[in-house]
Design brief:
By secondary structure, this protein is an alpha+beta fold. Helices cover 14% and strands 25% of the residues. It is built from two helices and seven strands; from the N terminus they run H-H-E-E-E-E-E-E-E. The strands form two sheets. A four-stranded antiparallel β-sheet has the order 3-2-5-6, with no helix packed on it. A three-stranded mixed β-sheet has the order 4-1-7, with no helix packed on it. Strand 5 and strand 6 form a beta hairpin. The longest helix has 18 residues, at 8-25. The protein is globular, with a radius of gyration of 21 Å. The N and C termini lie far apart (69 Å). The relative contact order is 0.22.
Amino acid sequence: MTIDLISRRTLLAAGSVLGGAALVTGSARLLVPAQAKGLAPTRSMRGGSNNYRPGAPIVDRIGGGGFWMSGTVRRAGDGAPLAGQRIQIWAHTTEGHERDQRSHGATLTDANGVFRLEMPQIVPAFGQPHGHLAYDSGDFETVFLRPVMKSSGDTSLEAHFVLQPA
């Protein structure tokens, strides 16, 4: 007959495994708000404002479509989703250069702070396939992003904003 003794070390190790599993499966929803506390604002990226056009119109789609630009907008600090925020999107695509007016458009975030806009396929400019996004509505500090795609064959690109009040 063997007797198993539970040591403090064994108990702590088991707790970490179970806690990690809860985070992966999403069953520890109470932990998510705690992680959002102190969420730092997104900094503008170098080159993000290149060919920016203030006041680009809100559109249902840019050009013929086929490529999806999406992401989220949250408030710095508590990470709350921000609804109704204007995000401008532009890029060098199969239908035009990023300096062309027809390559620019804007969309609004939904109730969950999510945005999604269809546009023509992004193609490499200066060696890199990349998009440009801007938050510029005025309630929060302006942020310009320039995310680079992993491959020019990708058909979507995500960008996420964490905004600081202006």
